[in-house]
Amino acid sequence: MLVNAGSAWTFKLASMVVSLGTTAIAVREYGLDGMGLILLASQVATYAGLAELGIPSSLSRRLPGLLAANNLSLAYRLCASCLLVLLCSAAVGLLLVPVALLMLPSAFAIPTEQKDTAGVLFALTIGAIALQMPLRIGYGMLSSAHRFASYFAIELGALVVKMVAVVGCLYFFDPPVWVYVLLTILPILGAALIEYRLGRSVLPGWRFSLSQVSRSSILELVSLSSAVMLGTLASAVVLNGGGLVLAVFFAPRLVAEYTLPTVLAFSLMAFAASASAFLSPIASQLVGHDDRRLSQTVMLTSRYSALTAGAILVAAAALGKVILELWLGPETTPQTLEAMYHVLLIASLSGLLSIPGTTARGALVAMGHHWRVAYIELITGMVGLVAGILLALSLDAPPPLSVAVCFCLSNLARGILLATLFSRSVESGAPFYQANLLSIAPAVLAGLSVVVAYAYWGEGGLVSALAVGVLAGTAFIIVGTFTAVEPHHRQEMLQRAARLLRARRDPR
Asked: Fewer CB within 10 Å: N-end or C-end of the chain?
């Protein structure tokens, strides 16, 4: 368990570092216009990947029970059915490659001189997603055997290869943008192939045959994956919908101005929300047995996750512009940096406001409310998308900022609805989201004070940003400690701090 958790954390951290590093290199090489095309192709491929139907995740929910019961014949039928569905999905994806190459660029506001390049990028990313689909059964098999450490080790190796290939190629050569995209794709496909080969060892006697495919197994997989797929679609709308809106109605460059700060904010917020991933097994044990303890566990997890997210918001407010300039390079204009800084603030606030809902989500899925969760996430995401389109087209404000504001409000609504559903699903009926305001409010006030200070006194360099960040962060920690931390936890923290101070004064 600890090895699996450590592998997941290591991979998550390495993935964020490699993503930010390769993005910084690509922006310096191709500019925001080229980066906008790369991001747009990636977002289009994400929607094409929905053809996977969430089948590999469903396999990992059903196969472990069959392996535990040593029911190999049914396990063989389940895996054969899973692979057939994924092969059909891959065939559909490959059929879309010519469409992506020739017709898809016309669906976006891409300049004429960039349409051929965009078509190649669309074809590469969609083709890669299609080729990866049948290999994804390897993930389902490995996770069924709880071999997450092996899976993350392979993915980590692919990240290293990707980083080395991108840095080496762009340092020694001046490749076109499609070569950069190809260098990011090939390690992923290689990792998927290795995972497939390793996953087959979970069922050493299995060989794919159409005679093993059963209609009942396919229906079972589709039934299990439907809610997962709906949730994946909702996530795709929230994470990638804004970029597609900007590409359709405005220009690919705005995709980069919106997506880059959003990805930065959500990558950092993922660490704050990671504790919610461990709630499902805990909630499964407590549901129907100890609702009071379940409510307290979810509440504490949410409040402390919100404190972590609040610290990220304060850091984004104080250091965001400096970080963006260091990340994207001095070629980025001050006007663009200012616009991206505003999007970073809104995206960080959005992540903070969504923490109660994200935490409640893990418990709700364990309680059997996965369909309600999926509907709430999809509806709020779609409302945010439509509102973003209308606001961006009707206001004179920068379109990325308009879209970011709408998705922030969408995340707020999602958090409130999921938190309310959780409150009504446990006997205690505690006002879950309202209780989290004690964690959220100090961060919002501290971040707002930084923004007001910058607007009134102006901004300086790195040193002044660090000074402002330390002041605002200290105020946030003090207020948050006394408003959101449980009294016995606060007392323990103060006692440890006192012991540490005494030890420094008297080293003997």
From this structure: C
Alpha carbon separation from 95 to 101, 141, 270 (Å, rounded)? 11, 27, 35
Comparing 180-184, 204-208, 212-216, 431-435, the range with the smallest average pLDDT is: 431-435
∠ at Cα 272 (267, 273), nearest 5°?
Answer: 90
From CA 324, how far away is CA 465, in angstroms rounded?
Answer: 13
Q: Roughly how many angstroms between the first and final C-alpha of the chain, as a whole number?
A: 40
> 316: helix, coil or strand?
helix
Three-state SS for 360-426 is HHHHHHHCCCHHHHHHHHHHHHHHHHHHHHHHHHHCCCCHHHHHHHHHHHHHHHHHHHHHHHHHHHC
**Inter-residue contact 125 to 185 (CB < 8 Å):** yes
Q: What is the pLDDT of residue 281?
A: 55
On whether the CB atoms of residues 85 and 53 are closer than 8 A, the answer is: yes
pLDDT in tens, 1-26: 455 556 666 777 888 888 888 888 88
In total, the chain counts a number of residues equal to 508
258: left (phi over 0), alpha (psi -120 to 50) or beta: alpha
> Count of alpha carbons within 13 Å of 402, Cβ hemisphere only?
19
Question: How far is the CA of 374 from the CAs of 218, 357, 362, in angstroms?
Answer: 21, 12, 12
pLDDT tens-digit series, residues 118-162: 999 999 999 999 999 999 888 888 877 777 778 888 989 999 999
Predicted structure pTM score: 0.82
Whole-number pLDDT of residue 488: 67
